[in-house]
Structures are given as structure tokens and as C-alpha cells.
Amino acid sequence: MRRSVFFAAAAATLTLALVSLPSCGDSPAQANAREGPAARGLSIFMATGCATCHSEGSIQGPYLERIGDEYLAAAGGDLARAKRMVVAYLKDPKGVGPQKPREGKFLEMPAYHLMSPEQLDLLAEYVLSIRDGRKP
Fold first, then answer.
1. pLDDT averaged over consecutive 10-residue blocks of the chain (136 residues)?
2. Which of 10, 32, 76, 110 has the most CB atoms at less than 10 Å from its CB?
3. How far is residue 60 from each of residues 2, 63, 83, measured CA to CA in Å?
């Protein structure tokens, strides 16, 4: 038990350290998410394995390019509403449905209803930072 807590803490520390490194081939969204809530959301995105399915060329899930633009447009430009929409989708993707159906056949998006409200908010911050031509 003690060892697993140590490894979990070490993994979180390493993820945060890597996220805070100066740009080394990061996408623009990652480079712009170096500080604040979007940076913490990026670390959750990486630590929970979201990038496994949502990286360019993945056959498991859609690439999230322009996803922030899509949510913001659907929310009528209201960033707070867009954030609530992302959080609702993360909690219950099957019930809410994707903002925009993606081309291709992908694995079912898992529900993240066990994440804390703070974690969901931070993840939504990162997702919404993927806009204005920035890539995830």
C-alpha cells in the first residue's frame, strides 16, 4: 500500500515537472497551457491517459483539434456555459453525447464521474484551451 502511494505521488510529480518544462516540441495548446488552470488540466489529461485515445493518428478516439472552438460556438460564446457543457460530457459521455460527432469508429468514451469537481473543471479548462487553431 505504502509503495503504491509513493509511486502515484512520484508519477504526479513527474507529470507536473514535464508539463512545466520549456517547450520541447509541444503543440501550441500545450505550450500555452504552461500556467494556471489549463496547465493543471493538461497534467490531468496526461496522467489519466486521455492522450492515449485523443492523440493525432489514434484509432481509439478522435483527435481533439478545435474542440474548444466547437464547445464555445455551441455555448454561444459563453465560456462558463461551454465549461459546464464539457464537464457534463466528461461525467456522462453516453448520456450527453459528443458536441460534434467525429468521423470514424472509435471506442466508447469512458465516464469520469469519479473525478472530483475540481479535477473536472481543470480538465475542462484544458479542453477549452484547444481553440483558435491550437492543436492539442
1. 47 46 49 73 92 87 88 94 95 80 76 92 94 75
2. 32
3. 34, 9, 24
